């Protein structure tokens, strides 16, 4: 018997495991896939190792940057290159906004993102009270008009959640928007620190460094969890050769669906609630271009662009990594690395296309947006099936019910992106909370 079993070796599971080891616990981490890291992953494209999962973390929340620095990892902030929005037939400047809700009407007007009718609707708004929880899109529609939702909020929320703005909970995803649309003045920045941060060499280094010194077993699928008189018993491995692992305590750092399956007999109320959390799938296509062959990109002052779904393009965003991160440009040494992302909530069938099709679709959109005509030196397709939980209206109440049900079981904790935030700092905070519960 071990002291604690942590199921899942993504950032959440590895953070919880490390905290518990530091507190003196004997911890075993079980991961079903062949590697650690979850949605943080680095791989080589044209010989250059880059992120093919999450490439940045929020800097204005402390948990991610603090953890990276505690592990001896350097932190780098994006360059000042600005993002664009590809809509209404042109690449346009992205107005200053609160998750897509414009904060400067003059910038908005100059950008041309909205039609004259959409701009007039934005100017003619009145405060909208919010009673309970509503979707982001419904709230913005009522306050500013549907065009703001379609052309600004949707692409920005799509980058974070790959979701549908008219399904996502405003209180769970953009709570500060509630007071803003109710007539409060635009939020002022709390300090002048950069919004985002990354790691030179890639965010994938974070789980790699976290795993060092931990007892981690990959390729170890946990199929069943039951409570015992002394803690828990976990059935691990293939059905043809199951293994029983016992522990005093268990931390489930897995996505909502597998967590729901494992909690079926231990915390059935939590299991039912978790089973109701839907997810979105996406794909990241990474390209390496010879810099000399794409002069239209080599001198760009843009870090990429977002694409509203209303414009009916295949990709939802393009990130010019070589322009966004100093370390990527340096590592490229004559190659320009960039990536596109495809897939939103409800578009799973579109991602059943082949890798070759995803590459071709991306190249078509890159050609139409910025004029790329040459073939890339190398490509890489990374699929993230069910990778992003969807915070539907009522999500915070759902999470509260999950917490009550799980907290009623001694020695059990849950953590990860399904609860209080999908970003890296929020996931780390969730893991730290889970470890504290086991320690108490």
What does this structure look like?
By secondary structure, the protein is an alpha/beta fold. Strands 1, 2, 11, 12, 13, 14 and 20 form a 7-stranded mixed sheet that branches. It has a 7-stranded mixed sheet with strand order 7-6-16-17-18-15-19, with helices on both faces. The protein is globular and about 70 Å long. It contains 17 helices and 20 strands. Helix 1 runs parallel beside helix 9 and helix 1 packs parallel to helix 17. The two termini are 20 Å apart. A hairpin with a 4-residue loop joins strand 12 and strand 13. This is Protoporphyrinogen/coproporphyrinogen oxidase. It comes from Nocardioides hankookensis.
* Cα-based radius of gyration, to the nearest Å: 22 Å
What is the helix content?
25-40%
Mean pLDDT: 95
Low-confidence stretches: none
Report, as a whole number of angstroms, the end-to-end distance.
20 Å
Number of helices: 17
Major sheet attributes: 7 strands, mixed
Overall morphology: globular
Structural class: alpha/beta
Q: How many strand elements?
A: 20
- Strand-residue fraction? 15-25%
What are the salient characteristics of this protein?
single chain; 440 residues; alpha/beta; 7-stranded mixed β-sheet; 17 helices; 35% helix; globular
Topology:
Layout: E1 2-7, H1 11-22, E2 27-30, E3 42-45, E4 48-51, E5 57-58, H2 62-70, E6 82-87, E7 90-93, E8 97-98, E9 101-102, H3 105-111, H4 116-123, H5 136-144, H6 146-161, H7 170-173, H8 176-181, E10 196-197, H9 205-211, E11 215-217, E12 222-227, E13 232-236, E14 243-252, H10 256-262, H11 268-275, E15 279-290, H12 295-298, E16 302-306, E17 317-319, H13 321-324, H14 326-332, E18 335-342, H15 355-370, E19 378-389, H16 395-407, E20 412-414, H17 424-439
Parallel strand pairs: 1-2, 1-14, 2-11, 6-16, 14-20
Antiparallel strand pairs: 3-4, 5-10, 6-7, 8-9, 12-13, 13-14, 15-18, 15-19, 16-17, 17-18
């Amino acid at each position: 018997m071990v002291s604690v079993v942590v199921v899942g070796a993504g950032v959440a599971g590895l953070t919880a495991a490390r905290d518990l080891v530091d507190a003196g616990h004997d911890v075993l981490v079980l991961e079903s896939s062949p590697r650690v890291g979850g949605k943080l992953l680095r791989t080589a494209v044209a010989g250059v190792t880059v992120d093919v999962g999450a490439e940045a973390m929020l800097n204005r929340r402390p948990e991610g940057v603090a953890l990276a620095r505690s592990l001896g990892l350097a932190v780098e902030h994006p360059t000042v290159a600005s993002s664009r929005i590809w809509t209404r037939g042109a690449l346009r400047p992205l107005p200053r906004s609160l998750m897509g809700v414009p904060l400067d009407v003059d910038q908005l007007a100059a950008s041309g993102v909205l039609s004259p009718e959409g701009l007039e609707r934005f100017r003619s708004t009145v405060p909208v009270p919010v009673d309970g929880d509503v979707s982001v899109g419904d709230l913005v529609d009522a306050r500013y008009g549907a065009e703001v939702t379609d052309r600004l909020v949707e692409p920005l929320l799509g980058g974070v959640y790959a979701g549908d703005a008219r399904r996502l909970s405003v209180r769970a995803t953009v709570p500060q928007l509630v007071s803003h649309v109710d007539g409060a003045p635009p939020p002022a920045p709390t300090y002048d620190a950069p919004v985002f941060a990354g790691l030179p060499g890639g965010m994938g280094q974070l789980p790699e460094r976290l795993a060092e010194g931990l007892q981690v077993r990959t390729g170890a699928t946990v199929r069943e969890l039951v409570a015992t008189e002394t803690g828990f018993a976990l059935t691990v491995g293939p059905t043809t050769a199951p293994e029983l692992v016992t522990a005093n305590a268990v931390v489930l750092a897995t996505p909502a669906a597998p967590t729901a399956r494992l909690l079926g007999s231990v915390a059935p109320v939590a299991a039912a609630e978790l089973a109701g959390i839907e997810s979105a799938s996406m794909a990241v296509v990474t390209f390496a271009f010879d810099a000399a062959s794409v002069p239209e990109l080599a001198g760009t002052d843009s870090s990429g662009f977002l694409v509203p779904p209303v414009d009916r393009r295949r990709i939802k965003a393009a990130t010019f990594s070589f322009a966004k991160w100093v370390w990527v440009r340096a590592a490229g040494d004559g190659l320009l690395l960039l990536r596109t992302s495809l897939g939103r909530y409800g578009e799973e069938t579109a991602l059943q296309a082949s890798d070759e099709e995803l590459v071709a679709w991306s190249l078509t959109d890159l050609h139409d947006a910025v004029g790329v005509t040459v073939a890339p030196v190398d490509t890489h397709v990374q699929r993230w099936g069910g990778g992003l939980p969807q915070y539907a209206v009522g999500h915070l109440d759902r999470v509260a019910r999950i917490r009550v049900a799980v907290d009623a079981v001694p020695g059990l904790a849950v953590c990860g992106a399904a609860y209080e935030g999908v970003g890296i700092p929020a996931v780390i905070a969730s893991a730290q909370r889970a470890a504290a519960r086991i320690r108490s």
